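Narrative of accomplishments. A recurring question from our advisory board has been how the design workflow behaves on a single, concrete structure rather than in aggregate. To address it, we present the structure tokens for one chain from the evaluation set, followed by the sequence designed for it. No filtering or post-editing was applied between the two.
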């Protein structure tokens, strides 16, 4: 006969140990995964897919945030290379935490690399326009600003953001989730702003086309986006020469000259010069895995960077951090 008290004691101990194991590894007892995106988890995932993580990997072949994510989200990391591990961590984003990086990376993969080509189209990100920052700008023959509103975002600042974007670009669209669509459809009814939905199947569905809107273009705002060599190229091409003034007066004179250009001509020149920013080594970039496309595109990779990242992705001995965040 088995003593019931002993039996119950052993079972309690087993379940307690199982609970601790699952807690440490980010799991729960029961069927499937839970929505385990507490504050610590979300902070960690937001740190993993960043340019800072890429820089750490290129410099030290190691990132503490990445190693911690392996420990927290990967059930059995052994005998998997870093490419596989990154893919599995990215799957957590896909299923449970579609953050801004997930939206940006999907947008770049589906539009820049899917609909268009990186040889004929460029993308920009985090462009300061007035008091706002454009999440994503796609430029080919025309330019479209995409303002991203994920499931995790509210819509409080949307109107002011859109107002700023129209000061520098003529087309604006909101990329959002299905849950936000009805509200956005009402708020943007009658406006030139487009609406795209990132569906649960990871397709981008255009529900409302952005209309071209020139009325609010502001040449002063556009000029402030340009780098020195960019506005110099525009001014020299349009006026034939750069201003012959003191360094103290140079910036102000260049801005005045740009702002005196005919608005349509200035906008075309503005778009053409911004498009030149998105130049990458297309052949080497094609080898970058889907999950890291956005990060690498905006990390100004050189040939050695591509090579070092490729070695890291095929390496199987990932170091696993033992700290708990």
């Amino acid at each position: 006969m088995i003593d019931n008290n002993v039996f119950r004691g052993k079972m309690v101990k087993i379940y307690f140990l199982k609970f601790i194991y699952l807690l440490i590894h980010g799991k729960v007892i029961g069927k499937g995964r839970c929505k385990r995106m507490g504050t610590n988890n979300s902070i960690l995932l937001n740190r993993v897919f960043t340019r800072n993580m890429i820089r750490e990997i290129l410099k030290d072949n190691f990132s503490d945030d990445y190693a911690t994510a392996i420990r927290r989200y990967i059930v059995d990391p052994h005998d998997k290379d870093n490419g596989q591990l990154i893919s599995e961590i990215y799957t957590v984003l896909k299923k449970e935490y579609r953050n801004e990086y997930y939206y940006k990376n999907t947008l770049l993969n589906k539009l820049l690399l899917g609909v268009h080509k990186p040889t004929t189209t460029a993308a920009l990100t985090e462009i300061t326009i007035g008091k706002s920052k454009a999440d994503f700008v796609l430029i080919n023959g025309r330019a479209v600003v995409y303002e991203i509103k994920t499931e995790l975002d509210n819509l409080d600042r949307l109107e002011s953001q859109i107002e700023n974007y129209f000061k520098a670009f003529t087309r604006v669209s909101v990329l959002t989730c299905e849950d936000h669509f009805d509200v956005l459809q009402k708020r943007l009814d009658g406006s030139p702003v487009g609406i795209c939905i990132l569906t649960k199947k990871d397709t981008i569905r255009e529900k409302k086309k952005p209309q071209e809107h020139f009325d609010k273009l502001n040449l002063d705002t556009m000029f402030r986006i340009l780098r020195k060599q960019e506005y110099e190229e525009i001014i020299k091409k349009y006026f034939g020469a750069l201003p012959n003034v003191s360094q103290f007066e140079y910036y102000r004179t260049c801005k005045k000259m740009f702002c005196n250009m005919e608005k349509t001509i200035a906008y075309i020149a503005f778009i053409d010069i911004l498009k030149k920013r998105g130049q990458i080594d297309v052949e080497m970039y094609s080898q970058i895995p889907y999950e890291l496309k956005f990060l690498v595109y905006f990390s100004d990779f050189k040939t050695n960077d591509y090579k070092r990242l490729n070695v890291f992705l095929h390496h199987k001995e990932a170091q696993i951090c033992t700290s708990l965040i």
